[in-house]
Amino acid sequence: MRIRNRVLTSVLALSMVGVLAACGGNDGGDNMENNGGADNANADTNNAADNDADDMNEDMDNDDEAADEDAEENDGEEAADGEEVTITYARGQDATGATDVLVEAFEEEFPNINVEFREMPADTGQSHDQYVTEFSGGDASIDVFDADVIWPAEFAQANYVLELDRFIERDGIDLDDYFEGTVDSGTFDGRMWAMPKFTDAGLLYYRSDIVDGPPETWDELIDMAGEYAGEEGTDFGYLMQANQYEGLVVNAIEFFGAYGAEVIDEDQNVTINSPEAVAALEKMIEIVQSDFVPGDILNFDEPATHTAFLEGQSVFARNWPYMQAMTEDEEISQVQGNVEFALLPAGDEGSAAGLGGWMTMINRNSEHPEEAWEFVKFMTGPEGQKITAIEGGSAPTLRDLYEDEEVQDAAPLFADEEFVATLENAVPRPVTPIYPQISDIMQIELSRALSGDISAEEAIENMEQEIQSALDE
Fold it and tell me: Which residues lie in Low complexity bias regions (predicted)?
């Protein structure tokens, strides 16, 4: 499963400047929108939506029925009847300029709909909390907003956003055209609440001047990391994100997926206590407690990973696609020209990559739901995603766009079949309205297991009990 090394174009490099500045300022100063939401799982700050959920959920079905009736009456005519309206679109900072191009193209196609852009805080957690504050108070100033892949269930449960199925069915949107993991992230309680905008997934980076190709399985990685650590000035065989934060959960989800385990099923049943989950965590522990990782691996996050790898300290590293452009930057990389990447190694059930990326949602209190939907449909459809890919370097969630020559030319990464395969293999974190609590539970128990305080079996049993208790509250 070798992916040929390709230098990303300046478009992709520029996009990463925007990505790094767009979200997440809680991980050592590197703001990473593509870190899979690694800043968003603090239950103390991010669980505010749950406080409103119990009061509002009993009215949710009635609200949906009323909205359905309104949608049927309008049947899309409001958005196209020539009446000029203005909607507000909110998202994090975009240094690439792609948002301006996107809005201009939309307004040209829909001259009666004006889109005002509202820039949200660069820190993802701050943006999340600001949305919660405004939406819980019934504020209608934002119509459309971008959401981290771990937000939809929480916002749906809290009654902050519109259910989108009626629009999707009415306009014939085929969700099978999107990567499955991105659709799953927007689905809660059998309904679709967010449309996939762009995606991200974990990759395995390796030193091509040291090894001829990447390991196929986690067992092979263990063998190769131990064998080649020390070659070409390296100190370590493998780097990953093992600090007690959201990145640890993403890494664990990748091991769980590779060995056929899941945390919660689509019916909100806790399914983590399984032989597959124990085997996955045991493999993770084996790696973390090996002598080919740094002694302080339990302190490693994304910045620590890319810093060490760019300095030539390791043969292999797990990180997000943003690091590829950095490996070819001669000003910061000591391994330029000697790095390739591949699918993450496989377990008993194959390779699995943790899903990152962003969705688009509609504020339930929007005064212009039809116009808001037209903008969401445009942004997340072929034309809008093509603009975002070409102008912003963001990976599309629509498979067919990876066959588009202009998209491939904009970022050669998008022409790589195995990169697309990585996106196909991407697995979402647990889709639940109390995700911040579940993430905190997992972080604590995973850290205890990786540090050797408890066994894999004990950690899995603890997670099962604590997650079930949190769901029962």
Answer: 31-50
Predicted pLDDT at 82: 65
Indicate if 248 and 140 belong to the same structural domain.
Answer: no
Q: What is each CA distance from 95 to 35, 107, 122, 154, in whole angstroms? A: 17, 21, 11, 28
67 and 190 belong to one structural domain: yes
Residue 390 and residue 217: Cα distance in Å, rounded?
34
Coil, helix or strand for 10? helix
CATH of residue 153: 3.40.190.10
Do residues 309 and 456 both lie within one domain? yes
In eight-state DSSP terms, residue 398 is: B
Task: Collect all residues with Cβ–Cβ distance below 8 Å to 6 and sequence separation of at least 6.
Answer: 412, 413, 416
Dist. CA 93–CA 440, nearest whole Å: 27
Cα-Cα-Cα-Cα torsion 426, 26, 471, 282, nearest 10 degrees, comes to: 60
Is there a single domain that holds both residue 169 and residue 234?
Answer: no
Reduced to 3 states, what is the DSSP secondary structure of residue 357? strand
- Does 290 lie in the same domain as 217? yes
CA distance 137 to 10: 42
**Two tokens at 162?**
């519109």
What do you get for the CA distance between the two ends of the chain, in Å?
A: 45
Task: Give yes or no for residue 191 having a pLDDT over 60.
Answer: yes
Q: Is 159 exposed, middle or buried (0-12, 13-18, 19+ CB in 10 A)?
A: buried
Residues 78-128: tens digit of each pLDDT: 555 568 999 999 998 887 889 999 999 999 999 999 999 999 987 788 999
- What domain range is 257 assigned to? 201-354+431-472
Q: Domain tally for the chain?
A: 2
Q: Quote the tokens at residue 145.
A: 């907003």
| pLDDT per position as a tens digit, 11-36 | 343 334 333 333 333 333 333 343 44
Task: Examine residue 17 and state whether it is found in any structural domain, yes or no.
Answer: no
Per DSSP, 345 falls in state P
Tokens coding 245: 């934060």
